Amino acid sequence: MSVSFIRNIAASPKKVLTTAAVAAAATGMVLAAAPAQAATGQASSAQAIAHKMIPDAAQFSAFSKIVEHESGWNPSATNSSSGAYGLVQALPGSKMSAAGSDWKTNPATQIKWGLDYMNSRYGSPAAAWNFWQAHNWY
């Protein structure tokens, strides 16, 4: 570090604060980006699991559209007003325990429960999506 650089810093505390604020903001942006990347990875992992469980392209597409609208593919998504939980927003979330005790954390368990629900209530994910489009819920 040069002496003139140190003098400039000492002479201009405003510059120091501005530089520190920019550095802090930059650091904050980097830290904020990490969870978004993790969520994106989690979503793509859940989508891959669902694709294996739902090989039919049309049924997968319908299931995917519902999940995208309901939770954005976030297996820990919680609706603060209703308490609905998970990828498929089961209400209450504990219903998904029928598919496995790891329902709170395992996307595969949530997908299995959601797929079973869509098939038993509507006949298929495509029929559930048709209902969702007409009513904004399923």
From TrEMBL:
Keywords: Signal
Protein name: Transglycosylase SLT domain-containing protein
Leader sequence residues: 1-38
Transmembrane segments: none
Keyword Signal: yes
InterPro entries noted in UniProt: Lysozyme-like_dom_sf (IPR023346), Transglycosylase_SLT_dom_1 (IPR008258)
Family annotation (SUPFAM superfamilies): Lysozyme-like
Limits of the Transglycosylase SLT domain: 62-129
Superkingdom of the source species: Bacteria
